[in-house]
Specification:
This protein is an alpha/beta fold. It is built from ten helices and ten strands.
Length: 369
């Protein structure tokens, strides 16, 4: 409830309009995510080229995509892009470029206009300033989609030549948020990782410390990561044989090109995880969850599908797992156990299905190609 507006307006106008707006935005997001990722990466490339041309000697510690509330109130839906050194804003900033986010904020604009229209029926009870204040209060619901698009672009973005050629500090960060406010971490990279210190740090299992952190190219074989919060953590090209990731929150994790042979990933949340080219052979992944979209009311931005492109699933035990919107067609499936698994909107090749002995109920959730 927003305390300064009439209850009748809140429940009969604001809530229904917000609900309809978010549903339309979610549908657009799921349908056009690849397009939006490409647009963000293209913007990043252009920004990087400008940095290399005009600030080649500047070592970048932070690349920030700033949401400017003054711009939003003037209906200018562009984030300002700044670079900072390792000390962030303490030594000043350099504005580089802008990032047009109108593709998401067009829904914000539409909702704004709808509320103004409805507000005309509440003479002397609500005015345009009240509506403007309401829209500022809910801006995060729209900004969160920008965060998701950015985070889901990171693997492709960091593999570009433009990213590799940036003059970066030992620790480099990309983040976004309200200018000089709490930022959402999009990506961090540590170019001088100390494996011993990282293992010591990981062994403490400190709540929320590891989300979005850089664990690339590490040897973590047989490491116990049970009941860890590793949302968005980057384990690309790491050695994770026989690691225990059971009962962990892994959504948005990056395991591309990692060796996860004979790992234990029981009852873990794996939505939006990237397993491309990973080797999961022999792993126990029972009761795992790979769901897509908004799975409950607490999820503000729907999850994208788990990436199993060229993933080795030979001898993986998926018993009693839940799969939604998963494309198995490019995964290596041999002696893979899907007993008692639930499927919804999943894709398989015809030759993959032949050896799986799926039940009639399971087949209802599968599309064969």
């Amino acid at each position: 409830m927003i305390d300064y507006i009439p209850d009748h307006f809140y429940y009969n106008c604001f809530e229904p309009i917000l609900k309809e707006t978010l549903e339309k935005m979610e549908e657009d997001f799921q349908k056009n995510i690849e397009k939006y990722k490409k647009e963000f990466i293209l913007n990043f490339k252009e920004v990087s080229q400008k940095i290399q041309k005009e600030y080649a000697d500047f070592k970048i510690g932070y690349l920030s995509y700033n949401l400017m509330l003054t711009k939003i109130t003037n209906k200018n839906y562009k984030y300002e892009i700044y670079i900072y050194d390792k000390d962030w804003y303490l030594k000043g900033d350099i504005k580089i470029e802008e990032y047009n986010v109108e593709y998401i904020y067009k829904y914000y604009e539409e909702m704004w206009q709808n509320l103004l229209k409805e507000g005309r029926g509440y003479i002397f009870k609500i005015n345009s300033t009240d509506i403007n204040n309401i829209m500022i209060k809910i801006i995060d619901k729209f900004h969160n989609y920008i965060v998701s698009i950015m985070r889901n672009s990171i693997i492709e973005l960091t593999e570009t030549e433009e990213y590799k050629n940036l003059n970066k500090e030992k620790i480099f960060n990309i983040h976004t948020g309200k200018f000089y406010d709490i930022y959402d971490l999009i990506y961090t990279e540590n170019f001088e990782k100390n494996q011993i210190k990282i293992k010591r740090w990981l062994s403490k299992n400190i709540e929320e410390e590891y989300c979005g952190q850089d664990f690339k190219n590490l040897e973590l074989n047989s490491f116990n990561l049970e009941q860890y919060d590793l949302r968005g953590a980057d384990f690309r090209k790491s050695q994770l044989k026989e690691v225990d990731l059971s009962y962990s929150i892994l959504n948005g994790g990056k395991f591309k090109d990692s060796d996860l042979r004979n790992s234990t990933i029981i009852s873990s949340f794996l939505s939006e995880v990237d397993f491309e080219n990973a080797d999961l052979s022999g792993s126990k992944m029972t009761y795992s969850i790979m769901r897509k979209g908004k799975i409950d009311d607490l999820v503000e931005v729907g999850y994208l599908e788990t990436n199993l492109r060229n993933t080795n699933l030979t001898n993986v035990d998926f018993r009693s797992s839940v799969f939604e919107g998963i494309d198995f067609r490019e995964a290596i499936i041999e002696n893979t156990n899907f007993e008692e698994c639930k499927f919804k909107d999943c894709k398989f090749k015809r030759e993959q299905i032949i050896s799986l002995n799926l039940t009639e109920e399971q087949m209802k959730g599968i599309k064969i190609y």
